[in-house]
Design a protein that fits this description.
With about 450 residues, this protein is α+β, with helices and mostly antiparallel strands. The chain is about 35% helix and about 20% strand. It has 15 helices and 18 strands. It has a six-stranded mixed sheet, with helices on both faces. Strands 11-13-9-14 form a four-stranded antiparallel sheet, with helices on one face. The longest helix is centred in the N-terminal third of the chain and has 18 residues. The protein is globular and about 85 Å long.
């Protein structure tokens, strides 16, 4: 039996203990966005430090203006690259609590409607289960050989779900310590339940919130209706003007930097067999809102968006109130691709909005570029990616396709910007894991084969 086979066998033998460790971490209510859970976030960081120290890592919880960063180092072997593994121990709030089938911080193993065993509870998939697949792979290597096949550093964040406000400053101060040959991020999905994948592109993000103010107070619609400006009318017109009849964004220069897909890329994505009708049908929809001529995957992975996330103003209580509100509020988000510049998009968007405001109305913004995230395109020719792809194919007995992701993972672009370091995005979540929603789950198969996959990837990298 080869060394790798021995380590895989060890990972399988310790799976019950691995699950118990995951459940212990999931019981910690590490909700980063709510100050009431500050001590719980510190407890999760301390729990991880203890686990890493037990494995021989030089690990500690580092203070930040927010929640702690967990940093660990294991010198491993000099036979391969130095890898930096990133994950986050914080989780989303659990509201609405009444929609959970069981308490969100009482994890368990249940059988899904398809007969598959599922780990259920907040953080099971995003990101505690994913994070521990790597830690448990390291544990199996240590148990069999006493060391890791490559040099490994760890960075576990406690503020990913609340915008990572401390991350940039921490990385800038500690860049020499965190610098490695490649970053590994396990916060992405597989292609389907039986097919692993490496994410090769991410959309960026730009957010904008604003308030339009017209009159100095709310007005009686009988006394002022038709004469006084209604900011909700203005806001509705702005929203309506943002897209044309084909769904294209009408902000000037919005598509600057958006690359056209090559025929080879289109063919590769076509081979994945994406079922757009089933994808929409699963959420109760049937008619796509995409631009004509764009396939479903092209729309989700390679086209930018302008979305309205919230609109409100005036009276929203029971019954009616004949009022002209003095204010109207809106929240927007933009998913960006290729070389789109979030700073330029913000400027163009604000110009677009302000051109549609009368002189006696004002607008106030409450976000800045701290919420921006650049798009990411991974170099798919890098040798380490090929080695990881081969390891995944060995474990899952099928090719691991290179896929895109419609979401944003700011840490990957930060690794490139601050540390000049490429990232391999390899995750084992599924699209239906209900992350950020009630009844979050993580497939037991994803957890177990995720551990085994990292065992093989570490071996291949060495």
């Amino acid at each position: 039996m080869s060394i790798v086979e021995q380590v895989l066998s060890q990972a399988d033998q310790q799976i019950e203990q691995s699950l118990e460790r995951l459940f212990a971490l999931m019981r910690i209510e590490s909700i980063s966005t709510d100050p009431a859970y500050k001590s719980e976030c510190s407890a999760a960081a301390d729990w991880l430090v203890s686990e890493l120290q037990d494995l021989g890592f030089d690990a500690s919880a580092r203070k930040t203006p927010g929640h702690p960063m967990v940093v660990g180092h294991d010198h491993g072997s000099d036979n391969g690259p130095h890898v930096l593994f990133y994950g986050h121990y914080d989780v989303q709030p659990v509201d609405p609590i009444e929609l959970w089938d069981r308490p969100p911080f009482e994890p368990g193993l249940i059988e899904g409607s398809d007969g598959r065993k599922q780990i259920t509870g907040r953080g099971s998939s995003d990101d505690k289960g994913q994070l521990l697949t790597f830690v448990e792979a390291c544990r199996a290597w240590k148990a069999v050989t006493g060391s890791l096949p490559v040099k490994v550093s760890i960075l576990f964040e406690g503020e990913e779900e609340s915008g990572s406000p401390s991350l940039d400053g921490f990385m800038q101060v500690n860049k020499d310590e965190l610098k490695a040959d490649i970053a590994l991020v396990c916060d992405t999905t597989m292609w389907n339940a039986d097919t692993p994948a490496i994410t090769a592109s991410l959309r960026g993000m730009m957010k904008e919130n604003f308030t339009i103010e017209a009159a100095s107070r709310d007005l009686h619609s009988g006394f002022y209706g038709g004469l006084a400006r209604n900011p909700l009318h203005l806001l509705s017109r702005i929203v309506a003007d943002l897209h044309d009849e084909n769904g294209r964004v009408t902000i000037p220069d919005f598509y600057d930097g958006v690359p056209e897909l090559t025929e080879a890329q289109k063919a590769e994505w076509q081979r994945l067999g994406f079922d757009q009708d089933a994808f929409l049908g699963d959420i109760g929809l049937s008619a796509p809102a995409s631009e004509p001529g764009c396939s479903g995957l092209e729309t989700l992975w390679a086209r930018p968006t302008c979305e309205v996330n919230g609109l409100w103003g005036g009276y929203n209580g029971e019954g009616s109130k004949t009022v002209i509100p003095s204010r109207a509020n809106a929240k927007f988000s933009f998913r960006l691709v290729g070389d789109q510049d979030p700073v330029a998009i913000r400027k163009a968007f604000r110009n677009f909005v302000e051109e549609r405001l009368p002189d006696d109305c004002t607008i106030a913004y409450d976000l800045d570029d701290e919420s921006d995230g650049l798009p990411l395109i991974v170099d798919t020719d890098q040798p380490l990616l090929k080695k990881a792809q081969e390891a995944l194919a060995e474990e899952w007995n099928c090719e691991a396709p290179l896929i895109g992701c419609g979401g944003s993972i700011p840490i990957a672009t930060e690794f490139k910007r601050v540390l000049d370091m490429d990232t391999l995005l390899i995750g084992f979540a599924l699209e239906n894991d209900r992350i950020h929603s009630p009844n979050e789950k993580y497939e037991l198969k994803s957890f177990q084969k995720g551990i085994r996959s990292w065992v093989r990837i570490l071996a291949n990298l060495a």
